[in-house]
Amino acid sequence: MPSGPPAEPPEELTSPLAYEGVWRFTAPALEASVPQARHAVRDLLAEQCVPVAAAIMDGLLLIVSELVTNAVRHAALLSPQIAVQVALGANWLRVAVEDDHPYRPKALEADQGDLGGRGLWLVKTLTAEVGGTCGVEHTRNGGKAIWAELPLTPPATSPPLLR
């Protein structure tokens, strides 16, 4: 029986993939920041050559729009700037929108006649449909970060994100 140091795993199992990392950008808490944030996330994923499935991308971009819209509508008074963070792992991605408002929102189902109020509920639904998770965390400055973590490819049993 040979003795010696244990065998090292192959480098491809221990080295981060080229697209793994964390990116953060800020934007003013204005309506114009909603499409800008959505485009910035889409462009970042394309530039990093992230192998994200089309169905995940569609849901992700809707989640970014909803989270930035909520920050603009509900936190702008106390948070003139918002931050968007994208973290990428080998098989997952996480997007978070941070503001300086201390209120932690709850996802509410809205009635059919309601014109708004479904943003976080939609984020939770889209995330759950692909086996992801979402939540709200306090930030060091007393604000909050609302995040959604999604797989890069949907599970085999997952229904389509957008109906």
UniProtKB/TrEMBL annotation:
Q: Would the keyword Ribonucleoprotein turn up in this protein's UniProt record?
A: no
Q: Which InterPro entries match?
A: Anti-sigma-factor_SerPK (IPR050267), HATPase_C_sf (IPR036890), HATPase_dom (IPR003594)
Q: Which GO molecular function entries does the Swiss-Prot or TrEMBL record give?
A: ATP binding; protein histidine kinase activity; protein serine/threonine kinase activity
Q: Which SUPFAM superfamilies match?
A: ATPase domain of HSP90 chaperone/DNA topoisomerase II/histidine kinase
Q: Name one Pfam family in it.
A: HATPase_c_2
What's the Enzyme Commission number for this chain?
2.7.13.3
Gene3D superfamilies in alphabetical order: Histidine kinase-like ATPase, C-terminal domain (3.30.565.10)
Q: Report which superkingdom the organism of origin falls in.
A: Bacteria
- What name does the UniProt record give this protein? ATP-binding protein
